[in-house]
Amino acid sequence: MSAAADSQPVPIEAADCRTPFGDARATSAALRQGRRALTLQPVLGAAGGDSVPLATLPGRSLDETAPPAWLSCLDGLAASIPEAAWGDARHPVFVTSSNFGVGSLYAFARGHGPDHLEFCTPFALVDGLRRRFGWGGNVAVLSHACVSAHVGLLQASRVLAGGRAERALVFSFDFISPFVTGGFHALKILNPEMPAPYAVRPTGSIGLGDGAGFAVLGRSGAGFSLSAQSLYNEMNHFTANRADGAGFAACLAPVAAAAQGRRLWLKGHGTGTLEAGRLEAEGFGRLFPASPLVSWKGGLGHTLGSCGLVELAVAIAAVRGGEAAGTVGTTAPCFVDAVATEPFPTSAYDGVVLASNAFGGAHAACLLTHD
Amino acid sequence: MSEPLESRLKQLIVSTLKLEDVDPASIADDAPLIGSGLSLDSIDALELVVTVEKEFGVKIASSEESRAALASVGHLAAYIRTHAPPDRPPG
Amino acid sequence: MIERHIHSAQTDDPGPEEPAATRERLRALFPRGATRRMTQLGLLLGGVLDPVRPAEEDALIYASSYGESRALHEYLASFPTASPTLFQTSIHPSAVQQVLVTRQQPVREFLPFGGRAQIVAHAAQAALLSPAGRSIFCGGEERHVPPGTTTAASPIGFAFALALSPAAVGSLGTLRLTESDDAGGELALPEFFLALRQRRAIDQAAAPGLRLTLAWH
User: Fold this and answer.
1) Residues 6+ apart with CB under 8 A from A24
2) Scanning A93, A249, A284, C171, which has the fewest C-beta atoms within 10 Å of its C-beta?
3) CATH of the domain at B29
4) Contact B46 A240 (CB under 8 A)
5) How does strand A362-370 pair with strand A351-358?
6) Which of A252-256, A296-300, B47-51 has the lowest mean pLDDT?
7) Quick check: C148 contacting A, CB < 8 Å?
8) A302 DSSP assignment
9) What structural domains does chain A harbor?
10) Which residues make beta-bridge pairs with A171?
11) How far is CA A72 from the centre of its chain?
């Protein structure tokens, strides 16, 4: 299973996100205070159902409007992207999402009118966003569930490394809807308990949240780089990992090799499920025994396909601010002792390993380094 | 010979999970449902949980609880008998 | 310019075949009982991937504009008691995962694309840029007319798989992307599939700045 990570450093010119707490800086600050954006809400929105932990943007309900209420959030995020001729031949855009406009499709299927239709298919939605933001036609669309953002970052990095672009924009978003919440609830992992990533407890639960983020790659100046990237797909089962943790190891090992000699902290996937959380924490512990491990999904919820980029932006904000948030919502005992439940200073470290996982046993990891 | 509830559950298992080559009567009451000769997995288990809720009004709250309830047809029948709402006796 | 050589080109054109007929036609390619949860798109992908045999160190690039549209709409119809199986199978890139999970075949690199007008160019670029020794570029759609709208699904079904490597010897053809001055360019999956099916050449702007050439020996 051994392989090398993509290890040509890729400068990160800029990155930011939007969560219910606001931008990356505000999100990092809120998480350091131990705050949760998650509240218990009916799983099917206006149609009711069990109360489960959800985090929607301020003023946005779970049920989609036409046009979607999250468009203004993306407008604000897009306005903060450094200027370039995005979407032309030398400035490709990589849009990644797990759900795109599936909330609109749900609303249309529930009889809420044809105004939802233009947002229903991924390509139609992305084309609409492209026109809205004034991007050219060089916009790739990638979708791989909860590792979507990582896949977009990797592909953007390869296009740059191949000399086929000057700068690349990765733009990721996922906004929750009854389509998604109903599905995770049917999988019995979105339960009426707040998530506590990596905590030893009798029952696991995740939370789900809105999220969007971007990263501009290719020009240095911000002091951050993606110094290694790795993928692995177990294809063992749709919702279960190999019980021996081999999938986690296969993805993390190349990044560990690339990170030799660095002082690292770890941002894991950690949704709040038990078995996957244990396997992930133990996998990290074997490869990075001296590194503190955090997950922020206890505060933000799982932002699905956007989580890789949302949490990358928050990690960058944490390093800039000198302090990383602990694992919000989690108290000891944990699966491994290295789980940091409280904020900690980042000055002692020169790199962060960030990981995400997805259905199908998909794994993604990257090494964020900084000057 | 299985009780009526057990027989009904076996029929539901075959129809819900599209087990085309399986005779419901061939499923033993005490045979493990998951990872056994039926080759059912955790997603099948969850699909059965949804069916149980629709057919009997019995909710199974978590994946841990579903694992116990779906250990066998016998276990599932016992769970339903214990948790069925008074106005929907399972028979 | 980036290029790789085609060492296997598989296509399936099911025409108006319904999912049950596809299942019957292709079931022998899968373990017993495995096809009961598979979508038509998953079955079609399984058929074209079978001769190619993806391996762990391959890069697998997958392209579909509509994905599992039947599972998507059946999942929507299952509310308020949402079906976990249909939720799972409706999520892109389920079709390829269905196939590889039934075969318990891990793959290190899996890059699934959506989009429409430039999907071929972007997916091909990923296949040609991958450092893996072999790239498998596959894709397809399932034919479906969902109730209430004709916009959310493909009117035709098809699947393809190309095995690509840097080695020219013994190849069937070449897939190449050249940087160009073209400000526009489109090549959607149906047109690409037809060229593969008919062993026709392509030489056109497929996305801004990307000219795609498909040549057969």
Assistant:
1) A15, A16, A17, A213, A313, A314, A316, A317
2) C171
3) 1.10.1200.10
4) no
5) antiparallel
6) B47-51
7) yes
8) B
9) 1-371 (3.40.47.10)
10) A95, A214
11) 20
Looking at the DSSP assignment, which residues form a beta bridge with residue C4? C175
For A37, residues 6+ apart whose C-beta sits below 8 A from its C-beta are A19, A20, A21, A30, A55, A209, A299, A300, A301
User: Which H/E stretch holds residue C173?
Assistant: strand C173-179
Q: Read off the tokens for C12.
A: 């399936």
The chain B residue lying nearest C34, using CA atoms, is B39
Give A34's contacts (C-beta < 8 A, 6+ positions apart): A299, A325, A326, A328
DSSP state of C23: H
Instruction: Evaluate whether residue B67 is within a structural domain.
Output: yes
Domains and their CATH numbers in chain C: 2-216 (3.40.47)
pLDDT of residue A3: 67
Cβ atoms C192, C140 nearer than 8 A: no
CB A17 within 8 A of CB A78: no
Residue A56 contacts by C-beta under 8 Å, 6 or more apart in sequence? A20, A41, A62, A175, A176, A209, A210
Which DSSP state fits C152? S
Tokens of C8: 């296997």
- Pairing state between β C135-141 and A351-358: unpaired
Task: Using a pLDDT cut of 90, give the percent of chain C over it.
Answer: 92
Q: Which residues does C159 contact at the CB level (< 8 Å), separation at least 6?
A: C11, C12, C41, C44, C45, C47, C48, C138, C139, C140, C193
Distance CA A203, CA C84 (A): 19
Range in A110-119, C7-16, C80-89 the model is least confident about: A110-119
Q: Quick check: B60 and A204 CB within 8 A? A: no
| A287 phi and psi angles, rounded to 5 deg | -90, -25
Beta-sheet pairing, A293-294 with A264-267: parallel
Residue contact A203–B41, C-beta within 8 A: no
Which pLDDT belongs to residue A1?
Answer: 37
Q: Which amino acid is at B37?
A: G
Chain A, window 270-299: residues with a beta carbon less than 8 angstroms from a chain C beta carbon: none
- Collapsing DSSP to helix, strand or coil, A139 comes out as strand
Range of weakest confidence among A110-119, A272-281, C72-81, C105-114 = A110-119
Length of chain A: 371
How many angstroms separate the CA atoms of C89 and C36, rounded?
12
| DSSP category for residue A116 | G
A67's CB contacts (< 8 A; 6+ apart) are A115, A119
C116 contacts A138? CB cut-off 8 A: no
For chain B, the residue count is 91
> In this structure, what token pair is assigned to residue A141?
């669309």
CB neighbourhood size of A107 (10 A) = 26
Average pLDDT over residues A65-88: 96
Work out how many domains chain B is built from and give that number.
Answer: 1
Question: Does residue C4 sit at the A interface (CB-CB below 8 Å)?
Answer: no
Residue with tokens 């392509």: C202
Whether residue B91 is contained in a domain is answered as: no
Q: Which domain holds residue B24?
A: 4-83
| C55 in contact with A, Cβ within 8 Å | no
* Contact: A122, C115; criterion CB under 8 Å: yes
> How many CB atoms are located within 10 Å of the residue B66 CB?
21
Cα distance between the two ends of chain A: 32
Give the distance from CA A101 to its chain's centroid.
17
Q: Which residues contact C213 (CB under 8 A, 6 or more apart)?
A: C174, C175, C176, C177, C178, C201, C202, C203
Tokens 């992908």 belong to C45
Please answer whether residues A37 and A20 qualify as being in contact, where contact means their C-beta atoms are separated by less than 8 angstroms: yes
| C58, C134 contact by CB (below 8 A) | yes
ipTM of model: 0.97
Q: What separation in angstroms does the CA of C161 have from each of A155, A357, C96?
A: 20, 26, 11
